[in-house]
């Protein structure tokens, strides 16, 4: 049974890179049945011109193509662009499969590709890309908000996330009054758009954000 459309991913574009026009058209038609948009490219060089386009959610590379092969194209794209790549081949072997995964491919599919398997792999790839993009955007927003803190506000912020009271922060900062610390504390919550210590710690003091703030 075919997978059903998913409105969360149907706005992403799937790049299909294959020198066989019939294969390109067949894959594009299949993906359109689940609401996915596609762009078709006859060779690696044609795709490279669009490789950095942010609307791309996933790419399908055929291995055997004239000129640059799909595996060579994978080497060009992987690590340079944050794009999930699925490699396809009708002549795949263990060595090419191993090279594809070593080169950063998300999956390796043998032609003729099973329709349901391809749809599932592509949809999962786009979901992964969306999560990564959303996470990156959220991290950027947090970093921008933290950057608005003054040096003193940053010091108070560090005290809050380390569990210090206003009095303890005041002593740590060289004898500020607790009331002054409270003013800085209010500024911190306002600039970082948080309403509680729990929210502040959860949003800004976990993992890499905590390291960046310190």
From TrEMBL:
SUPFAM superfamilies: C-terminal effector domain of the bipartite response regulators, CheY-like
CDD domains in alphabetical order: LuxR_C_like (cd06170)
Residues with PTM 4-aspartylphosphate: 62
Domain HTH luxR-type, chain residue ranges per copy: 142-208
This protein's UniProt keywords: DNA-binding, Phosphoprotein, Transcription, Transcription regulation
Residue span(s) of domain Response regulatory: 13-126
PROSITE patterns associated with the record: HTH_LUXR_2, RESPONSE_REGULATORY
One Pfam short name: GerE
Alphabetical list of InterPro entries matching this protein: CheY-like_superfamily, Sig_transdc_resp-reg_C-effctor, Sig_transdc_resp-reg_receiver, Tscrpt_reg_LuxR_C, WH-like_DNA-bd_sf
Designated name of the protein: Response regulator protein TmoT
Taxonomic source organism: Ralstonia flaminis
